[in-house]
Predict the 3D structure of the following.
Amino acid sequence: MNCTLIVFVKNPVRGKVKTRVAATVGDEKAVEVYVELLNHTKRVIQEWFLTREESQKKKVVIYYGDFVNREDVWSNVGFLKKMQPSVPDLGARMKAAFEEELNEDAERVVIVGSDCLALCAHHLSHAFSELQQYDVVIGPADDGGYYLLGMKQMYAFLFENKSWSQPSLLAETLVDAEAHLITVKLGETLSDIDTWEDYLRESARLPSL
């Protein structure tokens, strides 16, 4: 079973990442927070990738939102690197990434971002496993969005006419899924890091950080 993990990232450039964090603590600290998030996401993905799971062939594709960086935390060995399409709508970019990977050799595709300190390797393993039974898997975020989405065939409507980065996103997605009679499995609810307060809260929950 060919399993592809898509990771949406940006490069840690001052003024371009974690702008809501920067509004409280400044651009330099916001970059530090985002680098920490990138490194955490990488560790989680490496752990998942190295976990031996029966009959799974794994691939990880890093999709950049600004420019492909050949000299960053994502090694050129083991991670494929691609550009997100240059369209402003997040849904259109996600849709294009899913289409590309499903049109290649992927039989199950899961996408995550790089904003979740609570993400663990077992969340990824669980998502790919649940796609054996369900059409779609979603990792809900406690702000009303989601940190993970997975499917094994294209459902374009999940990316269309949605309130991206708004607290109604998950509810809108579930309404559409029900209307199209597709089965959805919800994973564990986690928190994304959008603000400095989010970062402080999640760091306190994870004493190893």
